[in-house]
Amino acid sequence: xxxxxxxxxxxxxxxxxxxxxxxxxxxxxxxxxxxxxxxxxxxxxxxxxxxxxxxxxxxxxxxxxxxxxx
Length: 70
Known about the structure:
By secondary structure, the protein is mostly helical.
């Protein structure tokens, strides 16, 4: 019985390790706004200079993902 539990724990650890290794890595903040050609300085701890630039960049990214899915 202990062998089955040990095997299950080992398999769980393998799956957990693989999931951690394959997770999406967060993108570090950028000092310059990432929205197109804006070029303004980003707000501290963010990658955009304003809410509108962030929303525009998110719209562009969603459109790219929809084109890939189609």
